[in-house]
Design goal:
The chain is of the alpha/beta class. It has 22 helices and 33 strands. Strands 27-31-26-32-33 form a five-stranded parallel beta sheet. A four-stranded mixed beta sheet has the order 3-16-18-17. It is elongated. The structure holds adenosine-5'-triphosphate (ATP) and the ligand Nc1ccn([C@H]2C[C@H](O)[C@@H](COP(=O)(O)O)O2)c(=O)n1. Its EC number is 2.5.1.19, 2.7.4.25.
Length: about 675
């Protein structure tokens, strides 16, 4: 997961491969609530593990529901059988509408029936998201609900006891959010000693989400009767009973980004999306039909779909999106790649989501250069001609879907536009529903290696290159190449195989076939973790010796180039800027006095439990400097266009900030 202020996506030109979707948010949070309220134990597999489910799980724990996570990621909940063991709790629900609405209903009804006082709060945006229609419906039933902030919005207190009035139909508006109806449907079985009737006022939106609710209630033994979409009856005696084990299907809204990716960029091999298929419960799966209408070639399978580019350019569509409100955002970005306008209607609910999505979408599409018109419940996007694409920093409004759908704009070279970086601000907001979204995207996309930015940090031993490279890479969301580790691994492998450090041929063949891989910051030769062994001074000296051999350097060249992958690379070594990535955007030559470097290395070795003598270290590093500088093959020296940074008197943070300042200066973004 990327917790960084911005992520620069390089221009992307293709896509292929397989993505396994995270569990559906809507299904996950409905199942969590049902399982917590039901009789019996429920094991939920492939539950979404993201911010919105985390706040739901924490709230359930605060309400007395015991649950545990298995090693396979499943969550098992011990159902409360409709009775809360605590009479008071304060629950923080972040910005999770799928937690706030049904919990408000459940706690209001249970407090009315059994007594108690429960409070529900969220982030500031949650306190701007209307809940009045649900609160009015619950008050109509006799529930006591206190507005703790602005009336009609969270935070709320749900209090009781108070007599419930279940004889008359409960009326709820259905034209703002279907979640109000869902909240009542999920929770009224708790008090259904008699038939309970819900009547919907206004035209119900997002009906497929209500279908999910009804299907999941059926899995918990409650068969809701309905007359069209206006009247629902929860039969007397309904009880929530655990079905035991449930599997969450993949998130259909999240699938939309990969369907669009396939439609835009998969020309040879498809993008295969696993976790939903033909019989998916979620309405957003119908996004695939909209994508097909724009030109995508889609193959439906039982539990997957495969998407390729069909018609190109895409064609604009006019679509009532009332049934696919979340996924519809992706269509607005696809519209840029079409040859006729796209008009999306029936999206009034966008105004009250994580942000005002109509306003946000229009503002950010305009930053890219698009012509956009908007109304109360519609948006119209004109195709973006190749020369009109602008370099932009996309604001994401703490809205995961803004971040995910705008990432597709990095495919602009496919529209013939000038390749340029696209900045996504606050990319970590995807944690709400898809914490690994960007990592997943990177595993599927293709870029021209020369478009993938590289930041080189070269310099003498112990100057702090590795430390600086790691921290800069973390702040940019980029990968790291510790090229010294490749020479160190060659020296270590030679030592283990009894190969002389003068035998250039054998050393080169060892280097060319090194069984080396990196995982979670650790370095492995075959299956052996050699991270610490590589740092031994003797191995460093051996590395310096083998690194002077041209054939060894040649043997490691391609391996180093292969680290240049989307979204970018920070490479540290001696010749990153001079020999391996001479076209890199920023080359830093990092130095510090020999005395400072010896001091730092001494401290570093002592901390790792190696014995070391500072005078010996100073002598060794001066010897190593001399060998690295004076060898004929790629000697240690600053590239002509390198920035020099002497960090003898700079701490790590100051060095990192200096490099990030240089980096930002070199790639300005408007706004
Ligand atoms: N600016 C700094 N101020 C103080 N200590 C630093 C600074 N930069 C790095 N260090 C410390 O110096 C030690 C050596 O740093 P590091 O391992 O990053 O150097 P290096 O240049 O990558 O070395 P090598 O080339 O041998 O791999 C580490 O313990 C690190 O924490
Ligand atoms: N690009 C590189 C990286 C490293 N070396 C050599 C020089 C060093 O003495 C040795 C170990 O590197 P370190 O881990 O200390 O950075 O490898 C090189 O020649 N070129």
């Amino acid at each position: 997961m990327l917790k960084i202020p911005f992520l620069d996506l390089p221009p992307l030109r293709g896509a292929a491969g397989t993505v396994r979707l995270p569990g559906s948010k809507s299904i996950s949070n409905r199942l969590l609530l049902l399982a917590a309220l039901a009789e019996g134990e429920t094991r939920i597999e492939q539950l979404l593990d993201a911010d919105d489910t985390a706040v739901m799980l924490e709230a359930l724990r605060a309400l007395g529901c015991a649950w545990h996570r298995g090693s396979d990621g499943s969550v098992t909940l011990r159902g409360l059988g409709g009775h809360l063991p605590v009479s008071a709790a304060d629950c923080f629900l972040g910005n999770a509408g799928t937690a706030m609405r049904p919990l408000a209903a459940a706690l209001a009804l249970l407090a009315a029936r059994d007594g108690g006082r429960y409070t529900l709060r969220g982030v500031p945006r949650m306190h701007e998201r209307p809940i009045r229609d649900l609160v009015d419906a619950l008050r109509g039933l006799g529930c006591q609900i206190e507005d703790l902030g602005q009336p009609g919005y969270p935070p709320l207190a749900l209090c009781g006891p108070s007599p419930l009035r279940l004889a008359e139909p409960v009326r709820v508006r259905g034209d703002v959010s279907s979640q109000f109806l869902t909240a009542l449907l999920l929770t009224l079985p708790l008090v259904a000693q008699q038939d309970v009737v819900i009547e919907v006022e206004g035209e119900l939106i997002s009906k497929p989400y209500v279908e999910i609710t009804l299907a999941l209630l059926a899995r918990f033994g409650v068969q809701v009767q309905r007359e069209g979409w206006q009247r629902f009856i929860i039969p007397a005696g309904s009880r929530l009973r655990s079905p035991g084990r449930l599997v969450v299907e993949g998130d259909a809204s999240a699938a939309s980004y990969f369907i669009a990716l396939g439609a835009l960029a998969a020309s040879a091999e498809p993008v295969r999306i696993e976790g939903i298929g033909r019989d998916a419960l979620q309405g957003d799966v119908r996004f695939a039909d909209a994508a097909a209408a724009m030109g995508a070639e889609i193959r439906w399978l039982d539990h997957a779909l495969e998407v390729k580019r069909g018609r190109w350019p895409l064609q604009g569509i006019e679509l009532d999106c009332v049934a696919i409100p979340d996924a519809a955002m992706t269509l607005a970005v696809m519209a840029l790649f079409a040859d006729s306008p796209t008009r999306l209607t029936g999206i009034a609910s966008w105004r009250v989501k994580e942000t005002d999505r109509i306003a946000a979408m229009a503002a950010e599409l305009r930053k890219l250069g698009a012509h956009v018109a908007e109304g109360l419940d519609w948006i119209e996007v004109q195709p973006l001609p190749a020369p009109a694409w602008q370099r932009a920093a996309i604001h994401t409004y703490d809205d995961h879907r803004m971040a995910m759908c705008f990432s597709l704009a990095a495919l602009h070279p496919l529209a013939g536009a000038q390749p340029q970086a696209l900045r996504i601000l606050d990319p970590g907001c995807v944690a709400k529903t898809f914490p690994d979204y960007f990592e997943t995207l990177f595993s599927l996309v293709q870029a021209d290696p020369h478009d993938v930015p590289v930041l080189c940090i070269d310099g003498p031993t112990a100057s702090g290159k590795g430390t600086l490279a790691d921290q800069v890479a973390q702040r940019l969301g980029y990968a790291v190449l510790d090229s010294g580790a490749l020479y160190r691994a060659t020296a270590l492998a030679a030592q283990c195989a009894g190969v002389s450090l003068q035998d250039e041929e054998r050393l080169a063949s060892l280097a060319a076939t090194l069984p080396l891989h990196f995982d979670g910051g650790r370095c492995f030769l075959d299956d052996e973790d050699v991270t610490d062994a590589l740092r031994a001074e003797a191995v460093g000296q051996g590395a310096s010796t083998v690194a002077a051999l041209p054939k060894v350097r040649q043997a490691l060249h391609q391996l180093q180039l292969s680290f240049r992958r989307v979204p970018g690379l920070v490479a540290d070594g001696r010749d990153m800027g001079t020999a391996i990535f001479p076209d890199s955007e920023l080359k830093v030559f990092l130095t510090a006095s020999a005395a400072k470097r010896a001091e730092r290395r001494h401290k570093q070795l002592m901390e790792k439990g190696f014995s070391a003598n500072i005078t010996g270290l100073l002598r060794d590093l001066e010897e190593r400097d001399a060998r690295d500088k004076n060898r004929s093959a790629s000697p240690l020296k600053p590239a002509q266009d390198a920035r020099l940074l002497d960090n003898s008197d700079l701490d790590i943070e100051a060095s990192v900030n200096q490099v990030l300042t240089w980096w930002s200066e070199g790639r300005p973004f408007p706004g």
